[in-house]
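Example record

One chain of 737 residues, shown exactly as stored in the release files.
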Amino acid sequence: MDRLVYKKWILLILLILFLSPTNSFSLSKITGKVIDKSDGSPLVGASIRLEGTGLGTFANKEGDFLLKGIKKAKYTLMVTMVGYESKHLPVQVLDNDSVYLLIELKSKPLSTGEVVVSANKRIQAVQDVPISISVVSNNDLLTKSSTRFEEALRYVPGIIMNKDNVNLRGSSGFAFGLGSRVALLVDGFPLLAGDQGDMKFDAIPIFNIEQIEIVKGAGSALYGTGALGGVINIITKEPEESFKVKGRLHSGFYTLPRFKQWRYREDVPLKSGFDVSISSKFNSLGYILSGGLENDESYRKYDKSLQYNLFTKLNNSFSDFTKASLLFNFSSDKRDDWVYWNSLDSATIPPTNANTNARILSTKLALAGDLKHIFNSKNFLTFKTGLYRTYVENNLDVNDPEYRQSDAISFNTDAQMNSSLADRTLLTYGLVATFNRVTSKLYGKVNQDIYAGYIQGELAQIKDLIITIGVRTDYEKTDNSDYQLEFSPKLGINYSSSFGPKFRLSVGRGFRAPTVAERFASLKFSGFTVAPNPLLKSEISWSAEIGSNYDFEIFGTPFQYDLAIYHSEFDNLIEPTFDNSQQGAVIKFLNITRARITGIEFTLKSLLFGFIGFQTSISAMKPLDITLNQTLKYRSTFFCYNSLIIPLGNIEFYTDYRFINRMETVDELLKLQVKDYDARVPMHILDFRLKLKLKEMLNIPIGLTFNLKNALDYYYTEVVGNLGPTRFIGLQIESEF
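Predicted structure tokens for this chain:
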């Protein structure tokens, strides 16, 4: 029955969208060349997009580009390139016309030049987005030697990692890995588990990431449930034009703790792994095939893990106007299973009563298809559908009280139309269906269905002003729970002032439907009992932000700043709470009546002395539980990230420093089960990296990176009763053929 409903829903979406008006294509085209303004050299890989259409391309190795099938009209051509000023050029196209453009871009070292798709579900320059957005590029991942997805987020302004929870602007504290308040997508396809609604970091194909886009603030007007605090969209790489093989080896060790009572072994624990990828194109078909493995002996006893992943991406261009892609990702994680330390005196050792024979195995499989079809130069369709399956099970007997198992499949379909109603007047609208099917020892057999429709308009008729107005309606129904209807509007304004700075303003509503796990969890683990609460209501938020960014110079030194002030109101916020009415450590997920978070973010970038890259980011916020009149649990109120890059010819030196102040409030009832639960301190994490470019030095296609993470061997906890990673010394080898 479920499959029949799903098929009917897909057919309905396709029928509605394919009945959209289509017009025959004219023979008009735009050709041109993109060059560096200073020396006339071609800018390979420059992005050329016709705003409000699905038409776009990249400059080839000669800097040339071609856009075909363009209807008679006025357009705006957006040209971007990392390290150069972006350009918006007005273009008039006539019937059977051929327009040639020579485009000169001025070098601008601090300019990111990125185009993003996550803020408004369409391609646009990052500076035109009316809400705060951070971009982690592929180059950032390489320079930080990130081998895990969570490592890539630790230096994003506004984000604190609380173990498995992404805490974006205080929206999430620590919820035992359940119910992410930040939506996670890969190429626009949702990747939150159907049972727990959480992020599975090992399911992310990090070796094939082109960039990560982090949208801050309520994103439910376009992305629905889970986007209460923001959106993280991972854009994967495109297949290479010619055959290419890439590989990476990394290995290292955790140094032994300074305290003898923490040393559970005499030799140093190792962590190592590898990634390999091949990519090419055959005519119109492109492919990426890759795989990786990582073995981590851990800095803690009985905390080993073995992870591997497989990733495939296929692209095919059926014509200049119809393209499709298929994404497949599989990952497996086998690890030891415990949560809290024995005590502060034995912080690297599990509790005395922990079952050290227990292991947990989890697998994740994502299969997603993406079809893009341009009806004409004013209307184009994006259709995404697929499934995401997560399976978890420990090796205990099924009759053991701590046996855990859950099998969840999330089916997702999103059919979206983009229409250009007039010059720089754009409409984005679509229908969405999500079906979560859970069969679990922990949660029972549960179905959750979500149907939604959204529409958003962008008006840029007034010079230097972009106005965005949108709304989304979601219907959510879970077995044994009442249905919920959510209405999520948004407003965004982006203004480029005549005196330099750009300003943005956004207001939006967000919501998150309770997950299957939060409603129906019934389990015992590490001395805790989790009880079900099927009466949970959706979390609701209203978020507002005003921000500004500007590029300027002081005595010839370039600077770039970004400033944001934000305010969020939360109702029915779901938090894990100890139930005082029952004996023992019984946890229920309950709706906290109301909470408020007000904060400020400031980021400054510079190129000191013309070659030293510098960046600092400062975030401060006041997360208030209005019901209890105290700071929200598991939130820090001040954090600061700093990075320094010193290029010395073929050697590059990097240093990063991260400070996060001490969490003010945690759940005091944790003391019933966790010894020294209040042992928490501010974080001072200092990392160093040294990169050698052997290709330039010795004509060998290899890059070497020496890593020293947590160089001070500083001891801290990200969440209660969990010692953070200690000092790690490692070597990474990269090669590309």
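Notes: The mean pLDDT is 88.
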